[in-house]
């Protein structure tokens, strides 16, 4: 098995104490933790390979409040209802703790305020003039 280990990793392991190795081996990571780290590394790699390019991932949801805005949330939003101007009617809005970017609702014409948020990845690449 040691043949499959990169030489630099092998050297790092060889320099660790038994206690350090035991601590690493006893750390419990869930599959979700590992997937999250892999995704972050992939995004970092993409940013490093394309330094002019910006990628935003999140969830698109449509609010009923006001004029029915369409928003990209960087954290998964949750729906909330609130009364509209003391009329007894309620509107649906989507809230999250993340950053919220307004989008043109025509880009996601199938989404309604009642729709579950749609997970998306948007990449912006400047055009050199």
Number of strands: 6
For the largest beta-sheet, the strand count, sense and barrel status come to:
4 strands, antiparallel
Number of helices: 3
Please indicate the percent range of residues in DSSP E strands (runs of 2 or more): 25-35%
Distance between the termini: 53 Å
Q: How do the strands line up in the largest sheet?
A: 5-2-1-6
How are the elements arranged and paired?
Layout: H1 7-14, H2 18-26, H3 31-49, E1 54-62, E2 70-73, E3 78-83, E4 90-95, E5 100-103, E6 118-124
Antiparallel strand pairs: 1-2, 1-6, 2-5, 3-4
Structural description of this entry:
- This protein has 129 residues and is of the alpha+beta class.
- Helix content is 28%, strand content 28%.
- The chain has helices spanning 7-14, 18-26, 31-49, and strands spanning 54-62, 70-73, 78-83, 90-95, 100-103, 118-124.
- The strands form 2 sheets. A 4-stranded antiparallel beta sheet has the order 5-2-1-6, with no helix packed on it.
- The N and C termini lie far apart (53 Å).
Features:
129 residues; alpha+beta; two-stranded antiparallel ribbon; 3 helices; 6 strands; 28% strand; elongated
Summarize the structure.
This protein is an alpha+beta fold and 129 residues long. The chain has helices at 7-14, 18-26, 31-49, and strands at 54-62, 70-73, 78-83, 90-95, 100-103, 118-124. Strand 1 (54-62) and strand 2 form a beta hairpin.
